[in-house]
C-alpha cells in the first residue's frame, strides 16, 4: 500500500459514521476528517459539554458539516442500550461504527455492572454497542466495524480465571488485557460475519504512540509521572491528527479488507502513515477468541443476532 493521507479519503456524502469518544484525541480528528469529507458523523460521548465543544470546533472549520451528538456511557450496559436505541430511532442506516473511546491504566474501579473499569469500557461496552447496532449495520451495504486497539495488546493476556482483576489489580496488565480483547473481538467478529455471508466487515486499527489526552485517564503515581514527562514524550510521539490516520484508513479505504489491522508504518509501529500491520500471536488465537466471544455475550447479556 502507498502512503495514505486524509487527502485520499473518498467522498463520504450520504454515509453515516458513529464514533465513540469523538470529543478529543484521535476520535475528534477522525470525526473532523470524515465530516469534512461529507459524512454525517454521530459523536457518541460520555460528556455532553465536551461533545458540544468538539462539535462546535468541527463546525467552525466546516460550517456545512453534518454532526449529531449521542450521550454514551460505555461503563454502563443499560446506558449503552439507551444510546443505541436512540441511534436506531434516528437513523435507518449505519455505514461505519468506530469503537474508539477508551481509558488507560486507571486506578482500580468497578463499574455499576460490577466489572473492572478498563475491561468494561474498552471491551465490554464496545462489544455490547456493536451487538445492539449490528442489525442496522447488516442492513447497510458494505458497512464496517472499526475497533481501535493499541501496541499494548502485545503484553496483554486474557485471564479467564480473573477477567475483573479481583485477585490483585495491576493497571497496565488490565489495560493490556482490554486492548488484546479488542483485537480478539475484531477477528472473531470478522470470522462470524464471513460465515454468515454478511456484507459488513470488521477491521482493527491502532494509533501508534500519539499525543492525545488518553493519559489523562491514568491516575495515581503513574499518571503524575506521565503528565510530568509529557513534553519529553512529544519527541517520540506523533500528533493526534497523524494518530487518527490508521482509524480513518480502516474505516474508508476500499483496499482494506475484513480482519485486517491497520497501524503506523514507522519504526516499531510507533508513528508514521497507516498500513496493514501484524497483530501478536495471542491476538490470532482462534480458540481464545471464540471463548472470549462466549464470555462477552454472557457478561453483557447482548447476543449478536444472526451470527450465532
Structural account:
The chain has 308 residues and is of the alpha/beta class. It has a single domain (14-300), classed as NAD(P)-binding Rossmann-like Domain (Rossmann fold, 3-Layer(aba) Sandwich), CATH 3.40.50. The protein has 10 helices and 10 strands. It has helices spanning 25-36, 48-61, 77-90, 117-138, 171-195, 220-228, 230-233, 240-243, 245-252, 286-300, and strands at residues 16-20, 40-45, 66-71, 96-99, 144-148, 201-205, 210-211, 238-239, 261-264, 274-276. The strands form 2 sheets. The chain has an 8-stranded mixed β-sheet with strand order 3-2-1-4-5-6-9-10, sandwiched between helices. 52% of the residues are buried. Mean pLDDT is 93; it is low at 221-233.
Overall structural domain count: 1
The total strand number stands at 10
The profile of the biggest β sheet is: 8 strands, mixed
Question: So what's the oligomer here?
Answer: single chain
Q: In the CATH hierarchy, what is the class?
A: Alpha Beta
Question: Between the first and last Cα atoms, what is the distance in angstroms?
Answer: 34 Å
pLDDT < 50 runs, ≥5 residues: 221-233
**Computed CA radius of gyration, to the nearest angstrom:** 18 Å
SS element count, helices: 10
Q: Give the overall silhouette.
A: globular
CATH superfamily: NAD(P)-binding Rossmann-like Domain
CATH architecture: 3-Layer(aba) Sandwich
Overall pLDDT: 93
SSE arrangement, N to C = EHEHEHEHEHEEHHEHHEEH
Derived from helix and strand composition plus strand pairing, the structural class reads alpha/beta
How much strand?
A: 5-15%
Helix content: 40-55%
Task: Give, in spatial order, the strands making up the sheet with the most strands.
Answer: 3-2-1-4-5-6-9-10
Q: Looking at CATH, which topology would you report?
A: Rossmann fold
